[in-house]
Design a protein that fits this description.
heterodimer, A: 129 residues, alpha/beta, Rossmann fold, 5-stranded parallel sheet, B: alpha/beta, 5-stranded mixed sheet
């Protein structure tokens, strides 16, 4: 698989360790990764990099995950990009809200790697398993 | 006290004897120090109506009423209006009954033949004051509970991020993403990972306890087969059991009826009980999950988790479901977690209307059992089918169907849309007259069918209009390319026969409705399992 065939995933998380860990995991599974550390840069990086999928944290500085999803909806090329929310927050309170805001899936930290990868494959329309 | 003398104390007297009522009225009128305004009700039902209307400062209650007898009256009033203090006025001088009345929520118990004007007025004033202090304490307690739970929720959130980082990098090393590792390194990393998972479970338990205390432990019951959560639990826990040399199996008769329960919660309870059983069973032992009908209690299924472990002494079986209960000195000295799992399991079982218990003998293993209600359409539909102890002439069924446009099976309607649709329909019906039936196992995957039972046809037509209107306006469904059909059918009930018990008749009607639902929700599909 050449570099250009790889699907590009935008990782949005304010914790540098979590970004790095996710980066290693996703690159090992043949994805290209780009990063944003807050809500505002998530939008600008997404507009510049045109990712195929976003892995989004909810608790972010400068516009939380929900704000990011709202903005994505209003920007034409971004409105169709699938979003997987990965958050430490209580799923009982946030899962439905995230799904309504447009997320494909809500996964709670710490996420099982297989679960995350199969959610990503499913959202990208790749064969799962 | 001063605020009370400002206006008369409004006393509700629930007393069927007009003579006694007159006497009490006179006593209160003679009393000095406070003014009383009396409202008289000659039976419990009338009294409860006054309490509903509000404005009552205290209830004076006789225990022998034409429509309610004994302490039952105290329970009824307390559950109906716990914010109103209550004094029992009884003809019976019985200390045991008096103490029980206080335990059930009364502030005082007076014997009619012993009261005079002074005593009665004082008792009434003190009861109001005591009740007020109690209510204040309760408020403080609730506030503290809320603060504690907010703190718990915050802490568990904050703990998850560092835990996630540890989890990520341990699994990166384990999966060889940073180069090859030796078998010894693998072993140590696996120990690390196992403990990360333990920590995660503890954080989850802390959150659940907070929810249980705040009454926010949610249970979403539906019609399910017990076999599924049991088989799933076996699958999750078998590797750990086998590593310990313990055989893990299930014994489920094929003919078990469906239960009315939340599958995720049943899995949670089973996982906890089974995990515990594995923990306390030595190498070479066996853990068995059994499901069966409860002989002594029809309408209920019993699930047990049986082990060949060290057993529990009688004094410990009594306390084992308490919150934060811990084994005082375990032989192996191994930690047993936070001691919250059984407490949470008990709360969850109770929320399902079941009960949980343990039978055990030291050295002879333990059996933890819990019950779940058998799914019964008759029980759920009974309020719709009957009215004043007889069967209604007709009832109506509303069916709401959401299916993907084009009918392509890959375009499944998601869980979020399903939950949203239920929410909307629930808001459209009359909560006292209509019942939204729970999900059934036989619902086709690519479409949603919601069924509402209604007591009358005209009401049903209005509900149909409302559902069409509300669901049609829902953003979620407009974007999702969904076909919406809402229809109502009238069901004539068979006329009541002299020799058939009401219960039996309700069951027959429910069974007929059940048959119709099968064709509605599964399109004549595979039926239930």
């Amino acid at each position: 698989m050449t570099e250009t065939d790889k699907k590009k995933i935008l990782i949005v998380d304010d914790d540098p360790d979590l970004r790095r860990g996710l980066n290693v995991r996703l690159r090992a599974n043949n994805y290209e990764t780009v990063f944003a550390t807050d809500g505002m840069s998530a939008i600008s990086v997404a507009q510049k990099e045109r990712p195929d999928l976003v892995v989004l944290d909810l608790g972010l500085p400068a516009g939380d995950g929900f704000t990011v999803m709202e903005r994505f909806k209003t920007i034409a090329p971004l409105s169709v990009v699938p979003i997987i929310v990965v958050s430490a927050r209580d799923p009982q309170v946030n899962r439905d809200r995230a799904l309504k805001a447009g997320a494909e899936t809500f996964l709670q930290k710490p996420v099982d790697n297989d679960e995350l990868l199969s959610a990503i494959r499913k959202a990208l329309g790749e064969p799962v398993g | 006290m001063s605020e009370m003398t400002d206006r008369p104390i409004k006393v509700l007297l629930i007393e069927d004897d007009a003579g006694d009522a007159r006497l009490i009225e006179e006593m209160l009128a003679e009393a000095t120090g406070a003014a009383f305004a009396l409202v008289w009700a000659d039976r419990l039902s009338a009294g409860l109506e006054h309490l509903t209307q509000g404005g009552i400062d205290i209830a004076l209650v006789d225990l022998s009423l034409p429509d309610s007898l004994g302490l039952h009256t105290v329970v009824k009033i307390h559950s109906h209006a716990s914010g109103v203090p209550m004094v029992v006025l009884s003809g019976l001088d019985d200390e045991t009954v008096a103490v029980e009345a206080l335990q059930m929520g009364a502030q005082d118990y007076l014997v009619k033949s012993q009261v005079d004007s002074h005593l009665l007025a004082r008792s009434v004033r003190y009861a109001i004051e005591r009740h007020r202090v109690l209510a204040e304490l309760e408020q403080v307690r609730e506030h503290q509970l809320q603060t504690k739970n907010q703190f718990l929720s915050h802490v568990s959130h904050e703990l998850r991020s560092p835990l996630t980082a540890i989890h990520q990098f341990v699994t990166i090393l384990l999966d060889g993403l940073a180069g090859d590792i030796s078998s010894e390194q693998r072993e140590y990393l696996e120990i690390g990972l196992r403990n990360v998972n333990r920590l995660r479970n503890m954080i989850d338990e802390l959150l659940e306890v907070g929810r249980a205390e705040a009454g926010r432990l949610t249970v979403d019951p539906r019609c399910i087969s017990l076999a599924e959560p049991i088989v799933e639990t076996l699958g999750t826990l078998r590797p750990g059991a086998e590593a310990k040399g313990i055989s893990l199996s299930a014994d489920i008769p094929g003919s078990l009826p469906s239960v009315y329960a939340d599958p995720a919660r049943v899995r949670q309870i089973l996982t906890h009980l089974t995990d515990n059983a594995i923990k306390f069973t030595p190498e070479g032992g066996a853990v068995t999950i059994r499901a069966r009908g409860a002989k002594e209690q029809p309408g209920v299924l019993c699930v047990s988790v049986e082990d060949t472990g060290c057993g529990i002494s009688p004094e410990r079986t009594e306390r084992i479901f308490e919150r934060f209960y811990q084994e005082a000195n375990t032989a192996e000295g191994s930690r047993k977690g936070l001691g919250l799992g059984l407490y949470i399991s008990q709360e969850l079982v109770t929320r399902h209307g079941g009960r949980i218990w343990v039978e055990s003998q030291l050295g002879n293993g333990s059996v933890f059992s819990f019950t779940l209600p058998v799914f019964s359409l008759a029980k759920i539909l009974a309020p719709i089918i009957t009215e004043n102890n007889r069967v209604r002439d007709s009832i109506a069924l509303i069916t709401v169907k959401l299916s993907p446009i084009g009918g392509s099976p890959s375009k499944k309607i998601g869980e979020a849309v399903h939950a949203q649709a239920r929410d909307v329909v629930q808001r459209c019906i009359h909560p006292d007259l209509d019942v939204l039936l729970p999900r059934t196992a036989s619902t086709r995957e690519d479409e949603i069918s919601l069924v509402v039972g209604c007591t009358d046809w005209r009401g049903a037509e209005a509900v149909v209009r409302r559902i069409r209107d509300q669901l049609g306006r829902c953003q979620e469904f407009q974007g999702a390319d969904v076909n919406l059909t809402v229809s109502a059918t009238m069901i004539e009930t068979p006329s009541q026969r002299e020799n058939t018990a009401l219960e039996r008749l309700v069951e027959e009607i429910a069974a007929e409705i059940g048959d119709r639902l099968k064709t509605v929700t599964s399109g004549g599909g595979d039926g239930d399992g």
